[in-house]
Amino acid sequence: xxxxxxxxxxxxxxxxxxxxxxxxxxxxxxxxxxxxxxxxxxxxxxxxxxxxxxxxxxxxxxxxxxxxxxxxxxxxxxxxxxxxxxxxxxxxxxxxxxxxxxxxxxxxxxxxxxxxxxxxxxxxxxxxxxxxxxxxxxxxxxxxxxxxxxxxxxxxxxxxxxxxxxxxxxxxxxxxxxxxxxxxxxxxxxxxxxxxxxxxxxxxxxxxxxxxxxxxxxxxxxxxxxxxxxxxxxxxxxxxxxxxxxxxxxxxxxxxxxxxxxxxxxxxxxxxxxxxxxxxxxxxxxxxxxxxxxxxxxxxxxxxxxxxxxxxxxxxxxxxxxxxxxxxxxxxxxxxxxxxxxxxxxxxxxxxxxxxxxxxxxxxxxxxxxxxxxxxxxxxxxxxxxxxxxxxxxxxxxxxxxxxxxxxxxxxx
Length: 413
Hints:
The protein is mainly beta. The protein has a five-stranded antiparallel sheet, with no helix packed on it. The chain is built from two helices and 26 strands.
């Protein structure tokens, strides 16, 4: 019995669907603040991709404005290598992805210089399921070359057990996703994305350049200080199931002019999801979670639509926000009422855990118009709501004698 209870509690602890499988996708979570270059390992769940000891010289750089570094080598957005704000948050990873193989400028410096960095997934991917890989890149001003073939490779982490040494080219694997165009923008972040079917053993993602020198298309950046090398910035790495359903969140309520959150509220794995929000047909915001205000008029029901796009596939969902009086209590927080069946043909039973006497009910369509009103009388803690409206989805509002409010989304079929 104890084992069953533990399993039940663990299962209920996280009721969200997995959205982005990449841990720490924006590099915000730090193990320890950076104090030197080549410290990709300071970003939690990320490391240099090859088997090396300590912080190798040929390792990507980690920059995090939240660490408060005053060093020009480490600060964000300005340092000796680039001037760029992160795509989101405070952190950036930077890597050298190409070396033109001319003689090294410093005696003893290796002629092999390619950075690869690897991150953990929350769990292995599902075999046969389609996923969208995406990440954002920007060419640093110091980069001597712009090029294509910037990619991401997913496996079970065996890529770092091949005997490769730091800085050496990894060209024995084919990345699932890579850029086909030369990326030379030093101002705007550029999104690279593509889809693939998982084998089922993928637990890690590695980013870098996995192509032979002769297959990489390059453009020389004559004003870049790194004459022989390319240098790119990375942010917001994502691996998301293509069949993920859109989720606008639970119907909510707000006091006049007060903010309330809608969307995937509380889901920490939703980072990197491309969501656009609309109200009355107009675009208002983007993100997996946004904040909206209650109307100035009590009783207004605002409907918001989220359009979620994953590798070109768009899905949508709606949520309503009802404006309630200032200081109104919410019966839905107390869970005092239940309603069934739902959907129904127009007749619902409303049950309560305690005697309610009478209660006022109002039914709104998704445009906020009242389509039905009825005073409910409870007998043996139950009341019947009868309504004659067209088939569709509506919002039921219940108000008790103390002014407490509960709202439910109901469906008529």
